[in-house]
Amino acid sequence: MSYSVSPIGFVRSCFKEKFAIPRQPHLAPAARGVLELLPPFDQGDAVQGLEQVSHVWLLFLFHQALEDKPRLKVRPPRLGGNQSLGVFASRATHRPNGIGQSVVKLDRVEPGRLWLSGIDLLDGTPVLDIKPYVPYADCVGEAVNAIAADAPRPIAVDWLAPALAQAQAHERRLGEPLVALIEQCLAQDPRPAYQLPSPQRRYGAAFWDVDVRWHYPQPGRICVLEVVEAARHA
Ligand code: SAM
């Protein structure tokens, strides 16, 4: 038996590629985006009352990780990428039906558009449903997860002075908290845990329309090297 679902909208996100997106929502409060609703949900009626809600659940498709053959086991990055786990014990993107769920902050509502922050969603993510977060039911005080007990410990992020000046200039142009976004995302250490980076190795990711380059001058420490417009990067 099969059922079909259709997106109710798509997310325009600060994240233009999967690399360096935090592994869960809230880890980067400066990660912002807009959920653009499709007809008929782009009418005011569909979001009436939502202005009374601070957070929403988004159910969405991992559209860049869909696979034909279901996996039973996955290797979550949190466990270093070399330990496997049952797919249902993990929040990995490769899963049956490719459905993701995130609680995100709802900053503003208008007909056809929801402004969101703290997102962990790639640009263009198809959203299947929106539900208000209900604190008394959704916040489980005694909940335990021994696999992911705490948020990952952030690592130190330093800047070369010219890179910080570049980021501040792009922040003014974009009207987005770019410096905080870069710091919050890089503090999650996006590098695969099995890679031991030499100080010579350069890493990069795109946020909004800029490319950010960084390296690891020493283990557990990131230094941002440059922040340039994506198309103009050499
Ligand atoms: N909070 C969600 C959940 O638990 O279902 C997502 C968790 S998943 C581990 C988060 C990762 O999904 C991000 O780091 C990003 O790399 C990836 N991701 C986000 N949006 C995606 C999309 N549309 N397609 C494929 N991968 C995506």
From TrEMBL:
| Alphabetized SUPFAM superfamilies for the sequence | YaeB-like
Instruction: Tell me which residues make up the TsaA-like domain.
Output: 5-142
Q: Which InterPro entries match?
A: TrmO-like_N, TrmO_C, UPF0066_cons_site, YaeB-like, YaeB-like_sf, YaeB_N_sf
Keyword set, alphabetical order: S-adenosyl-L-methionine
Q: Which family does it belong to?
A: Belongs to the tRNA methyltransferase O family.
Q: What is this protein called?
A: tRNA (N6-threonylcarbamoyladenosine(37)-N6)-methyltransferase TrmO
User: Which organism encodes this protein?
Assistant: Pseudomonas lalucatii
